[in-house]
């Protein structure tokens, strides 16, 4: 028997991975809101990707309150939208439904395990540079399209293997992990740094790296965040720092975090979920984080000016 997927949020991430599953002939439905539904009905689900374009004229769409039960829920809203969508999910779940979150950050795991039984929640993350265009198309701009998931406790279970099998023939790099919490914290360090510096300096990676000061700022930011993570008793034993630095140095000059792209589009940002939560941890563990505070302050000023 096949696995059926509910993708929550047909945006840059959900639309991409859900679309790749559809392309492979898998059973996928998107949970959408009215405006996005109307857009998708008009244009189809359109993926413009360096890994191959694809369009689905009639993607399966449902709205909250509709009927249906799903084996796997791929959760791909923004963090600030998540708590509003969670109550809508219960009616789509059966006893063994699993939820795979693809959001950046860590704090959403608490939200998910508070809302559903703990065993329903897997760990997950993705590396992909994608964005929604004005027409609602998904534009995937660099070659990475990796999705990683696994049991929070690190076990390799039959359900993880079964989901991985379903992903096998998709045009995406889907992997299982037996250390997904470590993977999620590492991605959290990387993305909080990248989104932090690209939004603070309002540019892509190239100009930041070409500036001695920009480079020094980035290094200090990584050190601070890594230190907060070590104090927070995570799986970080210090080796994250060097890896995050190397990863930052390897990025193409044009790379921008999705947060910077959202900022350029004057959209809300995940400041509280990413940088804000780390600052809470820093305060709890009394870690001095002036660079992280500067990044967060910039984002809070942006948020305030958006509201204004
Ligand atoms: N974009 C990227 O390159 C990457 C993003 N990420 C992370 O992935 C997560 C998702 O980001 P991204 O895909 O870019 O965000 P998008 O804004 O592109 O997509 C979010 C989608 O969620 C939908 N949504 C929100 N609330 C609901 C709801 N109640 N019911 C149904 N749909 C809903 C939105 O639809 P609506 O039109 O109705 O608002 C939107 O289509 C974030 O945590 C981000 O940090 C991680 C790696 C890369
Ligand atoms: C850096 C990147 C593109 C990697 O997935 C990302 O997560 C983001 O910009 O939100």
From TrEMBL:
A Gene Ontology biological process term: pantothenate biosynthetic process
Reported function: Catalyzes the NADPH-dependent reduction of ketopantoate into pantoic acid.
Source organism of this protein record: Geomicrobium halophilum
Protein's name according to its UniProt entry: 2-dehydropantoate 2-reductase
Keywords from the UniProt entry: NADP, Oxidoreductase, Pantothenate biosynthesis
Gene3D superfamilies hit by this protein: N-(1-d-carboxylethyl)-l-norvaline Dehydrogenase, domain 2, NAD(P)-binding Rossmann-like Domain
Domain Ketopantoate reductase C-terminal: 180-302
NCBIfam families tied to this protein: apbA_panE
Family stated for the protein in its record: Belongs to the ketopantoate reductase family.
The protein's enzyme class: oxidoreductase
Catalytic reaction list: (R)-pantoate + NADP(+) = 2-dehydropantoate + NADPH + H(+)
Molecular function terms, GO-annotated: 2-dehydropantoate 2-reductase activity
């Amino acid at each position: 028997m096949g696995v059926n997927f509910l993708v929550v949020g047909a945006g840059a991430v959900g639309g991409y991975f859900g679309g790749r599953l559809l392309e492979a002939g898998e059973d996928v439905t998107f949970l959408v809101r009215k405006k996005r539904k109307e857009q998708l009905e008009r244009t189809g689900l359109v993926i413009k990707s360096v890994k191959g374009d694809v369009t689905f004229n009639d993607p399966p769409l449902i709205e909250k309150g509709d009927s249906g039960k799903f084996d796997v829920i791929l959760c791909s809203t923004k963090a600030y939208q998540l708590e509003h969508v969670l109550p809508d999910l219960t009616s789509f779940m059966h006893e063994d439904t699993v939820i795979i979150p693809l959001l950046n950050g860590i704090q959403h795991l608490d939200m998910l395990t508070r809302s559903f039984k703990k065993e329903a929640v897997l760990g997950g993350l993705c590396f992909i540079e994608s964005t929604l265009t004005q027409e609602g198309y998904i534009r995937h701009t660099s070659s990475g399209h990796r999705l990683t998931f696994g049991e929070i406790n690190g076990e390799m279970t039959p359900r993880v293997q079964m989901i991985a099998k379903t992903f096998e023939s998709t045009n995406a790099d889907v992997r299982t992990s037996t250390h997904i919490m470590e993977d999620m914290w590492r991605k959290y360090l990387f993305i909080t740094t990248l989104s932090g510096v690209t939004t603070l300096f309002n540019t892509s990676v190239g100009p930041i790296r070409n500036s001695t000061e920009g480079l020094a700022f980035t290094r200090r930011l990584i050190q601070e965040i890594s230190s907060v993570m070590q104090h927070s008793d995570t799986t970080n034993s210090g080796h994250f720092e060097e890896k995050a630095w190397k990863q930052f140095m390897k990025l193409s000059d044009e790379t921008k975090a999705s947060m910077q792209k959202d900022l350029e589009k004057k959209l809300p940002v995940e400041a509280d979920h990413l940088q804000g939560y780390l600052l809470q941890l820093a305060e709890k563990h009394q870690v001095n984080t002036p660079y992280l505070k500067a990044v967060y302050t910039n984002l809070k000023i942006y948020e305030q000016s958006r509201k204004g």
